[in-house]
Each structure stands twice: as C-alpha cells, then as structure tokens.
Amino acid sequence: LSLSPSVAGEGQNNGLVMNFYKESCPQAEDIITEQVKLLYKRHKNTAFSWLRNIFHDCAVQSCDASLLLDSTRRSLSEKETDRSFGLRNFRYIETIKEALERECPGVVSCADILVLSARDGIVSLGGPHIPLKTGRRDGRRSRADVVEQFLPDHNESISAVLDKFGAMGIDTPGVVALLGAHSVGRTHCVKLVHRLYPEIDPALNPDHVPHILKKCPDAIPDPKAVQYVRNDRGTPMILDNNYYRNILDSKGLLIVDHQLANDKRTKPYVKKMAKSQDYFFKEFSRAITLLSENNPLTGTKGEVRKQCNVANKHHDQDP
Ligand code: HEM
Ligand SMILES: [Ca+2]
Ligand SMILES: [Ca+2]
Q1: Is the C-beta atom of 181 inside 6 A of ligand 1?
Q2: Which ipTM did the prediction report?
Q3: Band of the pLDDT at 8, cuts 50, 70, 90?
Q4: Which ligand is nearest to the CA of 186?
Q5: Does ligand 1 have an atom closer than 6 angstroms to the CB of 266?
Q6: What local confidence, expressed as pLDDT, does residue 294 receive?
Q7: What does the DSSP 8-state code read for residue 78?
Q8: Res 11: pLDDT
Q9: Residue 230 CA to chain centroid, in angstroms?
C-alpha cells in the first residue's frame, strides 16, 4: 500500500503546468512569441492590449478567455460593457490563433493564447520575462453580468480595489505593481473629463493640466473623435517604473492612480517601486503569475475554441 506520488506534495495544484503543449504542440509557445513580435512591429499598441487583456479576462471569474467572446442573441459580451471601454486589437488575437490552428488544429486554447501573448507583450514593452504555466481551457460563456462585481472602476476607493484583488490572492504590493501597467498606453477623455469639468480637480499637478486640457478640450467628448491622453508622457511605450514617479508627482490620470500614491497602505510600495525598477519587476512578475492562475478551467472542463470570438458549436454539457 503506497501513497500515490501525484497526491503527495501537490499542494495547491490548480491543474496548470509549465509547457503544457510540450507533446501535443511543441512549437506552440514559439509560434505565439513569433506572432506577438511580428504584430508588435506592425502595430505597437497590440502589446498594450495583450497586457490589459490579462486583467480584464483573468480578474473576471477565471482566465477562460470569456473576454474574447462576441455577443450572441442570448448574451451580451464582456467586451461590450462600459468597463471594457477602449479595449482594442481583438482581431489580432485571431491572427495568433490562426497561426496555431495551421500548425496544431484544435489544441491550443484561447485562454492560454491570451495569457502567453500578455507575457510576450510585456517583453516587447521592455518589461520582465515572466515564465507562466499553461493548460487553461476556454469558457463557453461571456459574463457581462459579473464584470462590475470583479473589475474595479477608475474612481473606486483603494479599499475596494484591494478587496477585489485580495479575493484573487493578490496582496497590497502585488496590486501596486499591477497598476504599474499604466506606465504604457492611453486613457480616453471620457474617463477623464470628470476631473477637468466643471472645475479642475485640485489633486492634479497644475503643470500637467494644460496638456490634459489640450487633449480633452470638451466637457462632453465627441464620441466619434478618438480623444485620449497618454498614461505616461515620459516613457509612453515602455513598461518601466516611471508610473510611480508620475503618481507621486500627482500626474496620475485616473482617480485610482492618484489614490495609490496617497493611501497609507499603498504609498510605501509606490515609493519603493519609484526608486527601484528591480523591485517593481519582481513584484509585477509575482502578481502577473497570480493573476494568470486565477481559477482556471483545466482537464475536461470548458473546451478548446476553434475561433477565439465564438464558442464551439456542438456541445452537450453547457454550463
Ligand atoms: C483598479 C484597477 C484598474 C482600473 C480601474 C483600470 C482602469 C483603466 C482605464 C479606465 C483605462 C483607460 C482605457 C481607455 O480609455 O482606453 C486603462 C488602461 C489600461 N490599463 Fe488599466 N485599470 C486597472 C488595472 C489594470 C491592470 C491590473 C492592468 C494590467 C496588468 C491594466 C492595464 C492597462 C493598460 C495596458 C491600459 C492601456 C490600454 C491601451 O492603451 O490600449 N490596468 N485602465
Ligand atoms: Ca474571464
Ligand atoms: Ca512608461
């Protein structure tokens, strides 16, 4: 009578492993890396999207690619909710998926593509290389109805933000590090005008205000004109610790960014990350790993989608 080795010492196994596709599709991770690089060459902002996707998919219940599904007659997609405003480049996820389908049809899940593209996008942006596990399967439904419950909003309190991330096992320095993603990309004026009109939020650095006002000249932005401000004016294309210097200097665009630098629970970590890029990268890597392992579907749960924007047709066990 002996204890099965797979039971002994497995601890908190969530079913994910390093290099899950080693036998079923040995080239999978290389194909993703190559596609992410090619896309980045043509459209730099794809890397911002891959980074933002991991938050918007993994934080909503599970890293199950629910974010990528289109609306159907029966359900509204997560993509179409207000929290998803500004998400872009979904069609290039399909480009990556098509490259994988050519090589190994039906093998690599969209959930793993989403996570690994974020990993490789982070490298394109000058961030750390973070080894991540695979073996996630794709959910069958997009859950617009639970988005607000899981994803903090831009003007939410730090307590609420810490609670929501805490529920995924991400602690305070982890949250501070993840928000460092706002060292790249942009914010549309619709998310900012409440800090500018009718009067300017006194918490904003007066030196930064003219620039924001120039980019967002109207209290009600024209929905057709794509008006936005870059999150980090200093190094807008680089995932570095400049974000922390910005927010300490009251140049954070969102209320949450500003509060992160002022709340007594988060400020010490903000200061430490502003000083040390190494510390930021270390915490960022740890937190991205936790986020990427949030509640995955593994084994025979879910499915491997053929196309990332639609669930497969034939299925007998709809959840
Ligand atoms: C409290 C948590 C967070 C809130 C409230 C928040 C909110 C926002 C908002 C409102 C925007 C601007 C969208 C637009 O106008 O186009 C944005 C952009 C962005 N966010 Fe976050 N975010 C949070 C956390 C995160 C995390 C954890 C990540 C990734 C790890 C992330 C990555 C990004 C990126 C990369 C952009 C730029 C996107 C682009 O330029 O296309 N955010 N965020
Ligand atoms: Ca999800
Ligand atoms: Ca930057």
Answers
A1: yes
A2: 0.99
A3: very low
A4: 1
A5: no
A6: 98
A7: G
A8: 41
A9: 17
